[in-house]
Design brief:
Spo0b-associated Gtp-binding Protein, Chain: A; about 350 residues; Rossmann fold; 2 domains; rod-shaped; alpha/beta; 15 strands; 5 helices
Amino acid sequence: MQFLDEAVIYLASGPGGDGCVSFRREKFIPNGGPDGGHGGRGGHIIMVADPQLTTLIDYRYQQHFTAPRGMHGMGKDRTGAAADDIRIPIPVGTEIVNDDTGEVVADFTTPGQEMTILKGGKGGRGNASFVSSTNQAPRRFEHGGAGEEMKVRLKLKLMADVGLLGLPNAGKSTFLSVVSNARPKIADYPFTTLKPNLGMVRYGGTDFVVADLPGLIEGAAEGKGLGHQFLKHLSRCAAILHLVDITLEDAAKQYKLLRKELKNYDETLATLPEVVALTKIDSLAESERKAALDAFKKATKTKPILMSSIAGLGVDEVLKPLRQQVADRRAASVEAEEAPKPAIKRRTRKVAEE
């Protein structure tokens, strides 16, 4: 299935049904009073987080969702039926943004989570509601309330705890295949990874998800290459594992380049906890390895971990700080959930009445 992580769709809730003008007319009751019922409410637009979905590809082909109108009121004080709601399934991790204002309407991070994005219009009142001491036979009724409409942008952000960052062919897919059951495509050429791959890692009694993203190149923040399309997936991560190929001629320069691209794309991402690992150390002799490590430390002011996924060297040393970062983020999330959350305001515009 093709991976699609962004889509724009058009939503419109249904208008309410009109109220009814009716009078009771039965045998022996030729002049009965008003008995016009109310109209039914229009259909809501409801978003539901479906754990079975992993992509937004369906919304490339279906982009308009319009809920039906409520039924009109009827005589004998019968209220029209409420219209059916439209329930739209989306992947867990989808953020819904008002495309006109840029405001975040909702963020679906829990399987089964649902939210009414647009409410259907209220049903209009029938003439039975307008009886008064001075008007015993009103012919007045209300039209159903207008529905709402909104153009929204769906942004899927993978629910990963750790994001892998690095140049193409830095060893990200190899690392993921070693520490998890994921089987990403691995080959000795750049851009092997064309879409995100997720792997479940179990270490130190903690399970966490690692995302292998397409490699970045210089100019990624301006749209060059493939990796820029997936940088937003790092926003939910507790930490970043930055893999740097130690066999590169100037590994420190490449590290700084990607840190700059990350900051240019989103300064918030650049503040995420980071673990730096120098990969493919099995390709160098011990003396060359030490010289490369010392030069990298001096140039970047970081403390990288030497690692070879294939040889199994340094993998535990990398997983240990990642596990701790994930545990710290989860503990902070529990505290945040216990705090009261402000209500999210929705900005919509009314649909013209039919």
